[in-house]
Design brief:
Length: 194
C-alpha cells in the first residue's frame, strides 16, 4: 500500500477544465476564467459553476441571466490566464486579448469565436455556499467548430481543450486516448472477484 498524507479539507480535484465565461456588463462584453465548473443535469441539460460575488462577471449573471461558456484550446493559454487575473472593472479585457467576440441567434451573451465549443446558458439557480455562489445554468444552445466534428460528434483531440491543475496551478493539454469509455470496464464483469 502506498503511504497517504492527509492534507485536510482541500479543493484538490484533478483535473479541472479551464473555461471562459462571457457576459454583458454595462453594455460591453466581459470574459472571466472559471475552473470550478461541471455538468449538472442531462435533461434539461445543465451545468454548474462556482463564482465569487465580487467578480465583475457576477453582475452580468445577475442582471442579464444569460452567459456563455467557452472552451478554449491549449494554444489560448495566454489570454485564458489574462481573463483570470485581471477584472473587467479595471480594463476592457476583450480588446486587449485580441479575441473575436460573436453573438448568435439573438442571444445577448458574448461568445469567443476562437473557442471551438461555445455553450449558451440561462441562469436557473444561484445559491450562496460560502466564498462562492453555485450558479446552475441551463444550456440553451451549443456551437461547435465544424472542423472539430467527426460525423457530427465533437472530437476532443480536435478540440484540444486547455486543462487546469489546481495545487501547483498549471495549465495542461489532454494526453493520448487511454481506452474507450463504457467498454474497457466490461472485461471486469467476467473476472472472478479477488
Ligand atoms: C485558472 C483560473 C481559474 C479560475 N477559476 C475561477 C472560478 O472557478 N471561480 C471564480 O470565481 N474565479 C475564478 N478565477 C478568478 C477569476 O477569473 C478572476 O478573478 C477574474 O479576474 C474575474 O474577472 P471579472 O472581475 O472581470 O469577472 C480563476 C482564475 C484563474 C486564473
Amino acid at each position: 500500500m502506498v503511504e497517504k498524507t492527509a492534507l485536510g479539507a482541500q479543493t484538490f480535484l484533478f483535473p479541472m477544465p479551464a473555461v471562459v465565461v462571457g457576459v454583458m456588463v454595462n453594455n460591453r462584453p466581459n470574459f472571466m476564467t472559471v475552473a470550478w465548473t461541471g455538468m449538472a443535469c442531462a435533461q434539461p441539460p445543465m451545468l454548474s459553476m462556482a463564482v465569487r460575488k465580487q467578480r465583475f462577471t457576477y453582475e452580468g449573471l445577475t442582471i442579464h441571466g444569460l452567459f456563455s461558456v467557452n472552451v478554449p484550446k491549449v494554444e489560448h493559454a495566454e489570454w485564458v490566464d489574462y481573463f483570470g487575473i485581471v477584472s473587467g472593472r479595471e480594463e476592457d479585457k476583450t480588446s486587449r486579448a485580441g479575441i473575436d467576440v460573436m453573438y448568435r441567434d439573438g442571444h445577448e451573451a458574448p461568445m469567443i469565436a476562437q473557442c471551438p465549443v461555445n455553450l449558451m446558458c440561462r441562469v436557473e439557480q444561484m445559491t450562496t455556499l460560502g466564498t462562492h455562489d453555485l450558479i446552475v445554468g441551463q444550456i440553451v444552445q451549443t456551437y461547435v467548430d465544424e472542423d472539430c466534428l467527426v460525423r457530427g460528434v465533437p472530437d476532443v483531440s480536435k478540440i484540444d481543450p486547455l486543462v487546469y491543475a489546481t495545487g501547483r496551478k498549471t495549465y495542461h493539454g489532454l494526453g493520448a486516448t487511454v481506452a474507450k469509455a463504457y467498454r474497457v470496464g466490461l472485461s471486469l464483469r467476467s473476472k472472478k472477484p479477488e
